[in-house]
């Protein structure tokens, strides 16, 4: 197996879109309801790159199997040193260390860019993601009850954070 973690390129967007839409349609990992279009995902890519936010992909044997990124936590100036991250993997490539490699590189980039804190929102039913984040040093800092609704059920959201300094 040849695994590479690298910066995403425009040519990766269709595969990123497939991974993203799979989660939208099949899980509560992503709280969106409707699949995204290629145009939407391209715009997302260009906005993130223009803002200086990284988008990393994991490529296994020449195929994109996961991605990770971060962006602004909130739009107010006092939050400028806090970022919120996302990491998504193709379902057949979980539990083999790909997410860890993506996150380690993403964390390093965030430190190098001078950010103070990385946060993440995790669906409370996604215990694997919570444990994954804890192993990376993230701490659970809050639980919000029934803040989301998807698949005719109320969803609880867990916030985790990692100090970067």
UniProtKB/TrEMBL annotation:
Q: What's the short name of a Pfam family annotated to this entry? A: Acetyltransf_1
Please provide the record's keywords in A-Z order.
Acyltransferase, Transferase
UniProt enzyme class: transferase
Annotated protein name in UniProt: Phosphinothricin acetyltransferase
Give a GO molecular function annotation for the protein.
Answer: phosphinothricin N-acetyltransferase activity
In terms of SUPFAM superfamilies, this protein maps to: Acyl-CoA N-acyltransferases (Nat) (SSF55729)
- What are the coiled-coil residue ranges? none
Q: Does the keyword Mitochondrion apply?
A: no
Question: Domain N-acetyltransferase, which positions?
Answer: 3-165
The keyword Transferase is annotated on this UniProt entry: yes
The protein's superkingdom reads: Bacteria
Give the EC number(s) listed in the UniProt record. Answer: 2.3.1.183
